[in-house]
Amino acid sequence: MLTHRYDDALCLAARLHRSQCRKVTAIPYLSHLLSVSALVIEYGGDEDQAIAGLLHDAVEDAGGHATGEAIRAQFGDRVADMVYACSDSDGGQKAPWKQRKDAYIAAIPGKGDALLVTCADKVHNVTTILEDLHTVGPEVFDRFTAGKAGTLWYYQSLSTALTAAFPGALSDRLTRQVASLTEAAR
C-alpha cells in the first residue's frame, strides 16, 4: 500500500517539474514521472521504488545535488540512492552525451533497487518515442542530441544491459519496444 510519503513525493515532483514539458512537446513532464511510477507499481515495486519513479529525474533536471540531498532528508537514503542511480548528471555541467550514456550503461549492473525504476523509465521513453515516430515521423529523432543512430544505439544498449542485469517481464517489454522502434525507424 502507498502511504502519505507517496503523496508527499507526488507533490514534490509536481513542484520540481511544474514548468517542464516533454522534449519539443506541450506535454507536461509530470506525465512521464507518473507513468514511470505507475510502471514501477505495476511490476511489483515497493513504495520507495514508486517514490523514486516520481523523483528519478529531480537531480538531473530540477536542482542537482541540493535537490538530491533534500530528497534524502525527506524520503531516506534508499530513495535518494535510487534517484542518484537514475541520473546521468548532477544537474551541473554535463559531460558529452556519449560519455554520459556509456557511463550510465556501464553502471547498470550495480544499480540494485534502482533497476526497476531505470527499466520503467526506459520503457516509457521508448514507448513515447515509438508513438511519436508513428505520429510525427522520422523528425522525432531531431529532438535528441544523438539523432536517430545514437538514440537507437542507446536504447538497444540499454535493453541488452537491463535484460542481463534485471531479467523479467519489464526488461522483456523493453526489448520488445526497442525492437519495434528499431523496425519502425527503418
Question: Can you describe what's shown?
Answer:
It contains ten helices and no strands. Helix 3 (47-55) crosses helix 8 (114-136). The mean pLDDT is 94. It is globular and about 45 Å long. It has helices spanning 4-17, 30-42, 47-55, 58-61, 64-75, 77-85, 97-107, 114-136, 147-165, 169-184. It is 70% helix and 0% strand. The protein starts with a helix and ends with a helix. The longest helix has 23 residues, at 114-136. With 186 residues, the chain is mainly alpha-helical.
Summarize this structure as a short list of keywords or feature phrases:
186 residues; 10 helices
Any chance you could write out the topology, listing elements then pairs?
Blueprint lengths: L3 H14 L12 H13 L4 H9 L2 H4 L2 H12 L1 H9 L11 H11 L6 H23 L10 H19 L3 H16 L2
Helix pairs in contact: 1-3, 2-3, 2-8, 3-6, 3-8, 5-6, 6-8, 8-9, 8-10, 9-10
